[in-house]
Structure formats: C-alpha cells, structure tokens
Amino acid sequence: MKKSNLYGALLISAFFNSAVFAQTNVQSLNEVLIQGNRLQIQLSEQNRNVDVITAQEIQKLPAKSVNEILGYVSGVDIRQRGPFGTQADISLDGGSFEQTLILLNGIKITDQQTAHNTLNLPIPTEAIERIEILRGPAARVYGVNSLTGAINIVTKNPESTALFANVFAGSNFKKDEEGNGDLYNGRGVQLGGSIAKEKHTHQLYTSHESGTGYRYNTAYHNNRIFYQGQIKPDEQNKIDVLAGFVRSSFGANGFYAAPGDKESKEVVSTTLASVKSKHLINGRFTLSPQVGYRYNFDDYRYYRYDLSKARSRHHSNAVTVEINGDYRMDFGEFGFGVETRYEQINSTSIGKHERENYGLYTEFRTDKIERVNLNVGAYVNYNSVYGWQVFPGLDFSYLLKPGFRFVFNSGTSQRIPSYTDLYLQQPGNLGNADLISEKAYQIEGGFKYDANRLSAKAIVFYRNIDDFIDWTKDVITNPWLANNTGSIRTTGFNFQTQYLLTKNAVYNWNLNVGYTYLSPEFKDQPSTQFSKYKIESLRHQLVAKLGWQYRNWSALLAERYQERISYKDYFLTDLRVNFNQKQFDYYLDFQNIFDKTYIEAAAVPMPGRWFSLGVKYRLDAH
C-alpha cells in the first residue's frame, strides 16, 4: 500500500473510532434557498444534485481564492495552471472547462472569448455568502452554455456596520530560480467595510495578492475592488447594485504552449457590473428584472521581454438583460422569464465578431401531490448564428419516509462555441468557423437522506454529449485544430455524506466525505488523433474533510485523491489551524503537506509543500 493511501485510511479509521454521535442541528443548511432566477427552492426540497459551500465552511478551508475553495468539492474538477487563484479551468462531472456556466448572484459572467478567463473574478472570499453547484444540464434554469452544470456565487448582504482586514504570507522555503537569492513566497491583504441601515446596505472590499511563484516565471500580482449595495424602500421592493474590477498579471511558463512558452506572460483585466431588482406585485406575483455587464481584456505575451513578437490582445464585451417572474397558485408555482445577451470581441488573433442570443424560460413546480415534488419546464433559445433550439427538462422526488427521498432528473442543454474555438489564428492553434454547438442529454436518479445529525446522497447519472468540441491533430508537428470530434457518453456515480458530531458545548467533530466515479466512452472519434482536452477527464475523485473545534481553537484536515484518464493518481493533504481571540482570528495553513508532485492541466507541475500564516480582524459598530 502506498504511504498516502495508508495516511488516508488511518485518518478515517481514527475518526470513526473516536467520534460519538450527539444531537446537532443541520436545519440552517437545509433551509438555504437555492437562488434560481425564478423559483426559489430550499436545499432540502431540491430534486437536482446540488451542493452548497457556506460562508462558515469557506472560513475553515485552507484556501484563499474561489479556485481553491471549489477544489474541495467532489465532482468539481479544478485544473489549475497557476496556484493562489492565478489561473484555473473548472468543469463538472467529467465535462470540459467550456461546458460549465458561472454566475454571480444569478447573473451570467462566462467569458465568450475563452473559459480560461471565466474564474478571473473580483470577489474576495470574505464577501461570499455561499457557492451553489448545480450538476447536470441546466438550460431549463440558466440557459445556454450550462451543458454539464452551473456554479452560482452568492455574495453576502451585510447585517451590521463593520470593518474587516485579512493579512497573510507564505512560502515553500525553496530558492527562487530567477537567480535573486530569495525564497519563493506569496503575500496578500484584504480590506473591507460595510454599512447596514434599515433601508439600505453597502459593502466595499479591496485586495492585493502577489508573490514570486513556485518555479521559474510563475510570479503573480492580483488587484481587486468590489462593491455591492442594496436599497430596500419597503417590504415589497428591493434593488441590488454590484460592481467589481480585477487585474491579474502572471508568468505563464508552460500554461498553453509548452515547452516553447517558458518566457510567456499574461495580463487579464475584468470589469463586472449589474443592477437587479425584485418587486412583489401582490401576494402571488413577483417580478425580477436584471441587467449585467462584463468587460474583459486579455493580453498574452509569448515573449515577456519582447512585446513586438507573438503578442495577442483581446477586448470583449457582454451585456445580458433578463426579466424573470413567478406566480404562486393554490396547486403550484409557475415561473417564466425572457433574456437577451449581446457578445462582442475585438482581437489581434481572433478578429472582430459579435452575436446575439435570445431565450424564453417556462417552469412549473408543485408539491401538492402526496409525497411527490415535481418541477417541469423548458428553455427556448434563438442564436443569431445557430438558430432556434428547444431544451426541455424535468425533475421530481418521491418521499419514501420522513427525510428519505428518491430523486430523478432529466434534462438537455447546449454549449455555443467560444470565439477562440471558432476564429483563433495562431501558429500552434487554429480555430474552425464551421463548428456547430455541443448538445447534451442527461438522466440521473438516486436517493437523498437528511436527519438532524446525518445527511447523505447517492446519485447515478448517464450523459450523452454530441458534437463534442476538442482541439486535435493527426501529426504531432501540426498545429492544434478545433473540431466537432464525435460523442462522449459518460456514466457516473456521486456519493456524499456529512456527519455533524458534538461531545459537548465547547468540543465537537464533523466529517464530510464525497466520492465521484466517471466512466467516459468516446464514440466516432479517430483513434489516431491527438487530443488536447478529452484525456484530462477524471475517473476517480475522493474528498474527505475532518473538522474539529475546542473552545477558541479549530482545525480542518482535508484529504483529496484524484485519478485522471491519462495522468498518474495522487493524494493531497491540507490542513488549516485557527485560533480566535475576540476580534482577531489567527490561522496557519499547510498545503500539500507530503510534498506530492502532480499535474492538473497541460504540462504544468503544481506547487509542492506550502506554508501560510495569516490574521483576520473584524470590528463591529455597536
């Protein structure tokens, strides 16, 4: 047995031998309202396979960015090309990084140039209330590009006037390869403040992270500013305003064109803004309009010291307008919505392009049938390039006994090719203007169990994706070419359980274990082709988190195991230790404790062992 396997087995065994069940309350999580743009459904009543990461969980994780936080959820595949929130691709249940839709408070923020930029977010972790992860085709709920699921980041609405600060620094204590004699290191600071009044709230955050990286040419500098405000003139109306900016600059050694890009660098700037409101017209009818805007500037420099060669600059804009509503009747709830989205790009290597997308949503939900919870609907889409499409879906559950339900879901969706897929013209990568949209059908079923001290779910799914878009080539010396390469049929299994255990009022344990198995089968794809993305899919993924708290002390130990189709498997062990003293929180993070060598994307080796020390301060007005 490998040492890592032994460590993991001993950890879980030690926990079960020492833990004693006691009464706790998990109702706060079960009562979370999943933020659909039309129908608001409690997590405990969701028929879909949904995971929620709460603010309390985020505070305990050994993570300082959204990228790192999502890496602790089974079934979520984070493929990082740089650590510390620098650059990452995200996918769900074996899909590609282009097939997951990202939203901020229900507003789409996916990048039409390339999903490589989607996680370039201006949101500090301290501003996050929760992260909702919806698995499976989600067109019926969120529209196009939610082929394998959607991730919605929900920010906090402040309840008090307060000031906040978070300062941290870390290192692997290895010499910097740039030849300056320093150790590889990173540091950061987050500052924030909130104002909470009866009829309006405001919060403002700013942050800076920088470091020398962890190997040659991986230094990074990230700057963020984020504002959110809410005006609530009365109980029937509210208006939410959001704006943010992030600029990320990082060495991109080996990120996209290894081994020739050793001296490459990338600078990505993203601006987000949105206005949304909610109006209770009467006791049955609610109307919710929203407008979202996203601007992205991507400056890729193949030679960081010679900007006259192989430099690509991309400017893209996207505007989304939605009007959603729901009408509550005696026998159920009817949701409806219309949307329009305009996308544009001006690029030195992609050219100038624009397109429009229009959509119509309809949903109906009822729990008036004994033991049955039913939700059915469809999304009708028109795209200025790809024409009309209809995407129906259905989910339901049957209550077998209190707290124990059978759940079923069936849905369809599509993914429109990115501008990079369609039009990129570079020496090593060529887009294909003849690409058609990817289309998916998924069916899943399983069981969910919720009790006071235990929750668990086991879901089996089958998904078929037609016209899968990949970058391929027949000869290793040829450039990569975007193609519709056939079908991918994936059978998968997802299991998750959470125990909340308490010995007494000041001493408690908790355990969360998630496991995902994926079996993809490739159809109608030439075996002679080299593939850029399909070989990176996960096969096995296990995430176990053991939490402990005693008075002012707390700790979380995380063990992760991943095996991909074409990479060797690995275990990662991380730890956060926290001590609270009045307004101060002191924390110590140990990441990759056993210094494992591993790769998540392309040919980019990830950091080894890394230590961080930080302190948080919060001052509430009285």
Automatic annotation (TrEMBL):
Q: What range(s) does the TonB-dependent receptor plug domain occupy?
A: 44-149
* InterPro entries the record matches: Beta-barrel_TonB (IPR000531), Beta-barrel_TonB_sf (IPR036942), Plug_dom (IPR012910), Plug_dom_sf (IPR037066), TonB-dep_rcpt-like (IPR039426)
Question: Domain of life of the organism in this record?
Answer: Bacteria
Q: Which GO terms describe its molecular function?
A: siderophore uptake transmembrane transporter activity
Keywords linked to the UniProt accession = Cell outer membrane, Membrane, Receptor, Signal, TonB box, Transmembrane, Transmembrane beta strand, Transport
Q: Which Gene Ontology BP terms does the record give?
A: siderophore transmembrane transport
Compartment(s) where it occurs, according to its Swiss-Prot or TrEMBL record: Cell outer membrane
Topology of the protein relative to the lipid bilayer: Multi-pass membrane protein
Q: A GO CC term?
A: cell outer membrane
Q: Which SUPFAM superfamilies match?
A: Porins (SSF56935)
Instruction: Tell me the leader sequence span.
Output: 1-22
Residue intervals of the TonB-dependent receptor-like beta-barrel domain: 235-593
Q: Does the record's keyword annotation contain RNA-binding? A: no
Q: Which PROSITE patterns match?
A: TONB_DEPENDENT_REC_3
Similarity section: Belongs to the TonB-dependent receptor family.
Instruction: Tell me the protein's name.
Output: TonB-dependent receptor
Organism listed in the record: Pseudopedobacter saltans (strain ATCC 51119 / DSM 12145 / JCM 21818 / CCUG 39354 / LMG 10337 / NBRC 100064 / NCIMB 13643)
